[in-house]
Amino acid sequence: MKLNLTGKTALVLGASRGLGLASAIELGREGANVMIASSNRERHAQALAQLREAGVTNADALVVDVRSQDHAQNAIDDTVARFGALDILVNNAGGPPFGQFQEFDDTAWQNAFELSFLSVARFTRLALPYLRRSGEGRVINIISFSVRHAVQGSILSTSMRMGVVGLAKLLSREAGHYGITVNNVASGMILTDRIRESALKNKLAEGKTEEQGLAELADEVPLKRLGRPDELAALVAFLASGRAGYINGTTIQVDGGLGRGML
Ligand SMILES: NC(=O)c1ccc[n+]([C@@H]2O[C@H](COP(=O)([O-])OP(=O)(O)OC[C@H]3O[C@@H](n4cnc5c(N)ncnc54)[C@H](OP(=O)(O)O)[C@@H]3O)[C@@H](O)[C@H]2O)c1
Asked: What per-residue confidence (pLDDT) applies to 231?
């Protein structure tokens, strides 16, 4: 299936590595101009090199902390200045810490809100005028399968992601009028730094080797393996395309069957 994103411009947040970078690569491979953004400039050279290796030359990078209102406005303005339009917004960033409810004070909740919910609302609001102009605008939020399957210790993350699900659903009903679709991609266990720094780290703390830890995590998944970032990115690229023009207001899991929810 040809997705034909040539001439489209995508802003992919949290894209110096992991699911964001994989999504940027997939969008670029399908022909889109890609602006990647993340908070640490030092990772950009490597990320852009990975894009080039994948054959994506129409890409650039911005330093953006998604929690900052100024950064958000600048990121939208700079993307439009660089590529002349904005058609596809991929909301993404690292997630809040894992832990039990009693461990988190107001500051932790405020940080999670700014990182995983307010950033999505703000970037989407600032991007909307350009997405309307596109006629085929796309908002794609990378969230977690925990919105359908209770994941122990994910209380900060899941509370915010549930808000994103509500935001996307309601916005899809308003923005559809302008040809804009709004959808969520819910990640299962996909091997990135985030998994290495959380689930795998817990296994190492139990005295397991990395190999044992990864094998135990994989064993939880019906497909008996962790996902690859490109497997989630393929869905992002599809949702960004005209081929997905009638998919709107949904949350789609990419989790190898891990989520036990029936819907
Ligand atoms: N991987 C999984 O299995 C999995 C499962 C469920 C949900 N998710 C969710 O999917 C999303 C992406 O996960 P991932 O595995 O790709 O994470 P990751 O490997 O930790 O990558 C996170 C990316 O976001 C950037 N980032 C972090 N904080 C940022 C900020 N304040 N502003 C801008 N960029 C920021 C990071 O770059 P810098 O640090 O340089 O800014 C990096 O590029 C997260 O929300 C995560 O919770 C992932």
From this structure: 98
Q: Please tell me the residue having the least CA distance from ligand 1 atom 30.
A: 65
Contact between 222 and 11 (Cβ < 8 Å): no
d(CA 233, ligand 1 centre) in Å: 14
| Amino acid of residue 219 | D
**C-alpha 14 to ligand 1 mean position (Å):** 6
Nearest residue to 122 (alpha-carbon basis) of 69, 163, 161: 69
d(C-alpha 8, C-alpha 32), whole Å: 5
Low-confidence ranges of the chain (pLDDT < 70): none
Exposure b/e, 109-140, CB count within 10 A at least 16 = b: eeebbbbbbbbbebbbebbbebbeebebbbbb
How high is the pLDDT of residue 172? 98
What is the structure's pLDDT at 80?
Answer: 98
Contact 35, 78 (CB under 8 A): yes
Domains of the chain: residue spans and CATH? 9-190+228-254 (3.40.50.720), 191-226 (no CATH)
How much is the pLDDT for 186? Answer: 98
At residue 79, the pLDDT reads 98
pLDDT in the model for residue 216: 97
Q: How far is the CA of 177 from the centre of ligand 1 (A)?
A: 31
Structure tokens at 234: 């393929």
| Ramachandran class of 56: left when φ > 0, alpha when ψ lies in -120 to 50, beta otherwise | beta
